[in-house]
Each structure stands twice: as C-alpha cells, then as structure tokens.
Design goal:
mainly alpha, globular
Amino acid sequence: MSVIWIGILASLGAGLMTGAGAIPVLFDKSMSKRTYDMLLGFAAGVMISASFFSLLMPGLGAAEVLYESKWLSALIAAAGVALGAGLVAVLNETLPHEHFVTGPEGADPGALSKIWLFVIAITIHNFPEGMAVGIGFGGGNVTNGMSLATGIGLQNAPEGLAVAVALRGQGYGRLRSFGLALLTGLIEPVGGALGVGLVHVSVHVLPWGLSFAAGAMLYIISHEIIPETHRNGYQNYATAGLLTGLILMMVLDVALG
C-alpha cells in the first residue's frame, strides 16, 4: 500500500475516534465535568508533545538536510508555525461558527442553523489535524505518521464526547447526536489527503508543511482546548492531565524513534 493511502487511512482512523468518544451518549452515560476536563487536558498534552516531537523537530531536520543551514531551517520552521497559526486564526474570525461555551464567533451567520454553526466550529479544528497526519506520512516516515495519528485520535475522543453531550443537552436524540459528532471527524481524511499530496509534489514542501501543521495545532490547543479545561474550576486536574499526556507522548515519540 502506498504511503499516500496509508496517510489517508490513518487520518480517517484519527477522525473516527471522534465518533468513538461519542459512544457513551448512545447509552445516556454522563461524564463528570472534572473527568472531562482532566481527559481534555490529557489530550492537550498529547497534542503539544506531538506538535514538537512529531512535527517541528522533523521539520527542522528536513530543512537542515535540504538547505544545510541551521539558521535557515529555524527561520523556515518559525515562518511555517506563524502561517499555520495565522490561517486558523483567520478562519476563526471569518467563518461563522459557534462554540458550546463562548457562543457565536466569526462572521454574521445569517440563516445558518445553530447545529451547522457547531459543525463549522469543529471542522475548523479537525481539518488542520488531518492535514498534520497526512504531512507526517508524506515525509515517508510511517512511524512518525502513526505517532501523530495516535495523538490526534486521543485528542478527538473527548472532543467527540463534548459535541455529543452538548447536542443531547439541546434536545437532539441519541442517534442524531452520535451521528453528528462522528460527522465532524470525517473532515480529517480530507485534510490528510491534502497534506500527503502536497508533500509528494515537492520534497521542499515537507519542512514547511510540518511546521505549518504544528502552528495550526498549537493555536487550537491554546485558543480552544486549554481554556475549555479551565472554565469549570477543575484546572488543577486539567493541568495534571496535560502533563501526563505530554510526558507519555514524549516518551512514546522518543522510544519509537
């Protein structure tokens, strides 16, 4: 199987974890806010570690091999991070969407129904994550790609649960809440296909793509995930979860090479 298809399938698997996280709503199982914040903090730690060890460091290494300059590789990584974070920030400001806690953001939603505002919000988050998995595989390092897919999948599970629980709270049925949560994760293989395809166009895209994906994910972690874990008064549990996830992912990334 070509690395392109492996990258697409891995990003699909990571996206499907959004649906896996939403499974408890099918049985009307509830999760305490403390547990939810701790798990979301764990996911944030996993993604911070993946951003550095599976994206930025390989990106720096690839740039140094291509251009034989530490300064140039550092500047490329810095520019890539800024571009990735900047794009997500622009999307966040321009696309109409709504968050479950902070409410509507972006452009005037006009006639869009509330449920589609939620879907757009999650899509903004999931697309660059899928692209990161694709870029990870596009570099030819399957181990690195699998590490990213695992980390993003772990982050998607509590996110899927959050979406499904919020929809249930607004009166949607169990099956519809689960289905919509699953749907939000299916944008990831689209991003995965784009990421792996771009890297295959030119090897020079690899360092830019890796650092771009890192910037996009770091923006999401800082702007959405961490603030979400600090809203209910369980920030100590969330911080403990974040550190646990970061350490675990760091050990796995280093041990798996």
